[in-house]
Amino acid sequence: MEVSQLPLNALRAFEASARLGSLTRAGLELRVTQTAISHQVKMLEETLGVTLFKRLPRGLSLTDEGHALLPVLSDAFRRMSATLSQFEEGNFREMLTVGVVGTFAIGWLLPRLASFKLQHPHVDLRLKTNNNRADMLLDGLDYFIRFGDGAWHGTEAIRLMGSPLSPVCSPSIGARLAGPADLAGEELLRSYRRDEWLLWFGAAGLEPPSLRGWMFDSSLSLVEAAAQGAGVALVPVAMFTREIAAGRVVQPFDTAVATGSYWLTHLKSRPETPSMKAFRTWLMAEIDGQIPSGR
Q1: For the residues 241-254, what does the mean pLDDT come to?
Q2: Which pLDDT value is given to residue 1?
Q3: Which H or E run contains 38?
Q4: Is domain 93-160+261-290 in CATH 3.40.630.10, yes or no?
């Protein structure tokens, strides 16, 4: 049977009744009477030549045919609603969902987003922050800005910038650190990447001390703990220039170690949409204007 032969109102009546489990509640949602809903459902059943509901004394029960039809209709109406919602006052608005590791979002991206909105007012940007771990497909991400080596299966990756790690701490702790060797007497706050401190001490030409101290799943939490005097955190200092400028934390040593970069990634199976291209072009232009060559 051709879809064009099916009455849209009848399809809507069935979907709402099946989803809500009640002709009455479906009528309230669609703003018609329960009788009208019942009539539309019967019309659809006659058109299809099947029974979609078992009428029970206390409600409705879907038949096998009804169970097969419901998810298809629910998905179709959901997609239609999402697309129609993108039209605003005669203008089409594109939705763009970007996952961002929280450190990059707060330390670099958010202060610049007003520029993107000004240049691309038709794009509705939705940000989902995370601790560098997300499922691009399940989370519905168009792009994912993440930290690492750029090698993720099934993913295209564009390098955005490096951000070497260096220690930060509260001013009071910083005042008693004459050199990197003094860190052996301090609490060293750690991320879930266990080798970062080992690499930093190697870059400083020192044997690493026994690591002790709290462990955190994000640099944002690390810096906040350091600011409150819990210990010394090893973080991408370029993402925390405001905290350093405000004096909440200090960077006691210039020694830094690179353990990865920030990357703009998307699934190879995901074609680039106009809104994705607009975001990528804007992002790279912002980086080219802010990050010196080779950094």
Answers
A1: 95
A2: 56
A3: helix 34-48
A4: no
